[in-house]
């Protein structure tokens, strides 16, 4: 499959983009966008779920190696890879069930729903595991909301940029 | 037997998820405890060389302000030295230089973090350059962290902005001891806890390192008191300290080598063996 190359390239580019550029943004001192989940979000729709889990785990763990965070990125990537079929069905409805879904052909609203659910789920798990105590619950929610909005904005931009022409 | 296989085949996705999740959570728990051997660390060859490559490019951006900082520090040290040399002259082989307990050497930061609850830094020197675990790391303005893991060429530092760290510190004026911790709220404020109520405290007082550790020498600057309150139940102060360091813009740091660590750790280990 010639798509392998594309996905490996996407993996490397997103990882480096995240580690070398986006982790230095720190808007207002605490808003940090995370766009590497885009790799999991854009995995082929008909991909075997087990393969998706392993790929998500690899992506998350690679980031953990750079960030010294143990397994928090791996865990949050696993969660969104696991709920992905559910979210896809919820956002795209019947098209997903009939396997006729073309991601870039769907309406903006459906794509937005899909991205937003995935991103906020990912951020919530990640920031909770990072704080690792109920003491910081407000901090976790605040970080999830602001960083999530920023990530969502960046991802929508990126998806528009890399969109394939029909 | 057949039923077990059927079960595994039917729930293979869920089982894979649980298995990988278990690994991820195990690594997370491990990362949240201090001083266990870490599997996941940026000191590995790939991530460390990528960070070093990036640092080689971005270093030029901060060069002007770094120069300014170093010049200021040079001036301060030169002033001290001028006054010292009036009274004493040190030869190259003088006992003071040869037999000093602590010496420092320069290291460079290649990756910084200060937004998480547990922050780590990466340095460009490792075991080859004489770095070892539990080395103190300072900047020209104050303490930065403690070396936690070393490889041949890199060292990982647990920053003072880490919820697992606790450093012995004292009030400069009255010598009352406490421990320095971080509450994960702001990157330029830390907390000093366990200072007894008998201490006299004023906003603006300096806090320095205490001598009760083999990591930092006594009286290194940390910060100044910005706010405090007495915990009535326990009779201890909770003191908020503004760091002298700007933890968000660190570059040139110093590692502090403790020359008598073998002797000291030998004594400590003997004591533990006796107990």
Automatic annotation (TrEMBL), chain A:
<keyword id="KW-0812">Transmembrane</keyword>
<feature type="transmembrane region" description="Helical">
    <location>
        <begin position="6"/>
        <end position="22"/>
    </location>
</feature>
<keyword id="KW-1003">Cell membrane</keyword>
<keyword id="KW-1133">Transmembrane helix</keyword>
<feature type="transmembrane region" description="Helical">
    <location>
        <begin position="112"/>
        <end position="132"/>
    </location>
</feature>
<feature type="transmembrane region" description="Helical">
    <location>
        <begin position="34"/>
        <end position="59"/>
    </location>
</feature>
<keyword id="KW-0133">Cell shape</keyword>
<feature type="transmembrane region" description="Helical">
    <location>
        <begin position="144"/>
        <end position="162"/>
    </location>
</feature>
<dbReference type="InterPro" id="IPR007227">
    <property type="entry name" value="Cell_shape_determining_MreD"/>
</dbReference>
<feature type="transmembrane region" description="Helical">
    <location>
        <begin position="71"/>
        <end position="92"/>
    </location>
</feature>
<comment type="similarity">
    <text>Belongs to the MreD family.</text>
</comment>
<keyword id="KW-0472">Membrane</keyword>
<protein>
    <submittedName>
        <fullName>Rod shape-determining protein MreD</fullName>
    </submittedName>
</protein>
């Amino acid at each position: 499959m010639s798509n392998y190359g594309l996905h490996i390239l996407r993996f490397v580019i997103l990882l480096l983009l995240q580690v070398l550029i986006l982790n230095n943004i720190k808007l207002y001192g605490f808003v940090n966008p995370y766009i590497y989940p885009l790799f999991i979000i854009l995995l082929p729709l008909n991909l075997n779920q087990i393969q998706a889990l392993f790929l998500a785990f690899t992506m998350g763990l690679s980031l953990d190696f750079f960030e010294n965070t143990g397994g928090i990125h791996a865990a949050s990537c696993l969660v969104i890879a696991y709920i992905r079929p559910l979210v896809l069905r919820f956002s795209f409805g019947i098209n997903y069930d009939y396997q006729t879904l073309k991601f870039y052909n769907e309406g903006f609203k459906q794509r937005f729903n899909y991205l937003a659910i995935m991103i906020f789920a990912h951020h919530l798990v990640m920031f909770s595991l990072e704080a690792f105590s109920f003491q910081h619950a407000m901090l976790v929610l605040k970080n999830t909301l602001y960083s999530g909005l920023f990530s969502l904005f960046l991802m929508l931009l990126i998806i528009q940029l890399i969109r394939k022409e029909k | 037997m057949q039923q077990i296989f059927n079960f595994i085949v039917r729930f293979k996705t869920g089982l894979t998820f649980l298995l990988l999740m278990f690994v991820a959570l195990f690594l997370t728990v491990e990362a949240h405890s201090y001083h266990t051997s870490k599997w996941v660390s940026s000191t590995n060859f790939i991530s460390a060389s990528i960070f070093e490559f990036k640092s080689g490019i971005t270093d030029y951006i901060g060069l002007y302000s770094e120069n300014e900082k170093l010049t200021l520090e040079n001036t301060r040290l030169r002033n001290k030295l001028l006054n010292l040399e009036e009274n004493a002259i040190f030869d190259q082989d003088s006992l003071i230089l040869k037999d000093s307990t602590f010496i420092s050497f320069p290291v460079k930061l290649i990756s910084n973090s200060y937004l998480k609850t547990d922050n780590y830094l990466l340095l460009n020197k490792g075991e080859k350059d004489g770095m070892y675990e539990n080395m103190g790391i300072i900047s020209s303005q104050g303490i930065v962290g403690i070396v936690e893991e070393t490889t041949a060429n890199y060292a990982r530092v647990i920053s003072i902005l880490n919820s697992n760290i606790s450093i012995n510190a004292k009030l400069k004026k009255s010598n009352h001891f406490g421990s320095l911790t971080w509450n994960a709220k702001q990157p330029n404020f830390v907390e000093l806890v366990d200072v007894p109520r008998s201490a006299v405290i004023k906003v603006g007082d300096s806090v320095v390192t205490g001598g009760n550790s083999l990591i930092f020498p006594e009286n290194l600057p940390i910060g100044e008191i910005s706010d405090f309150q007495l915990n009535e139940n326990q009779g201890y102060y909770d003191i908020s300290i503004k760091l002298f360091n700007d933890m968000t813009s660190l570059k040139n740091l110093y590692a502090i080598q403790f020359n008598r660590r073998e002797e000291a750790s030998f004594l400590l280990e003997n004591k533990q063996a006796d107990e």
